[in-house]
Structure formats: structure tokens, C-alpha cells
Design goal:
The protein is mainly alpha-helical. The protein has a domain of 52 residues. The protein contains 4 helices and no strands. Helix 2 packs across helix 4.
Amino acid sequence: MTGWQQEDPWAHQQAPYPQQQYPQPQYPQPQYPQPQYPQPQYPQQESAGQDGYGHMQYQQPQYAPAPAMQQARPMTGGLTAMESFWYVLMNIWFGAGYFAKIPVKKALADLGMAQMTGAEQFWYVLMCIAFGAGYFAKIPAKKALTERYG
């Protein structure tokens, strides 16, 4: 023994109970019936969808034509008298109406339906810097416009 290894003090004693060997159970192997697959039947003569070698030919599926898109009706007029009143009132209250309009106008500009002024572009960039607020406000407006005006 080396200096750092100690002898096992219990090595000289025998186990109090003899180790019993238990027989392993023997299970019968299941016998499964072999599957019987039907033999393929090849046509004797050339059918409509096959070439002379029995290969299927691809045929383009026939779809109904898409309905014509509705023509977008042009915007006529501006805001009603009450809408103008509420818009002015919203702009007096910290410019909320003006800032709510900018992402929608950006969506229109992306689709070529409007042109943003220099101030609107500046405020849109500033809104995008603030955690992408301008960009995330533009997405639903752009989605609605593309569904309507295609």
C-alpha cells in the first residue's frame, strides 16, 4: 500500500447474505404475419395521362381567373367641420393629432400616394429613433392601404 491509500477495513468480511442469482424470464418472440402487398397492375394500352412508357405526364391545373380588383375611388373633399374641429383640438394638446398623422402619411408615401414635407420626415425619423414607434405605427396603416388599393 502506498502512503496515501488506506486499506478497506471491511474487505476481509463476507457479505451477510449470499448473492442470489435470479433467472431471467424468457418471453416468447411474437410471430407477426408477413404483409401481402398487391402486385402493381400496369395498363396494357396507353391511357390519356401517360406517355408510351407508362410515366404520368404533368398537366397544369386549371384555376378560375382571379376577380378583377375593384378600382379605388379617389378621395373627395377634406375633413368635415367636426373632424376639423377635433383635429385642431388634438394639435393644441401637445400636437397629438399631428404626430398620429405622420406614420400614416409615411405609409402613403411608401406606396407613392403622398409626399412628406421636410418637417414630417424629421419627426418620422425622430419617432423611429424612440424605440421604432413611428415605424410600428406605420405598419398597420400600410397593410390596410395595400389591402384596399393593392
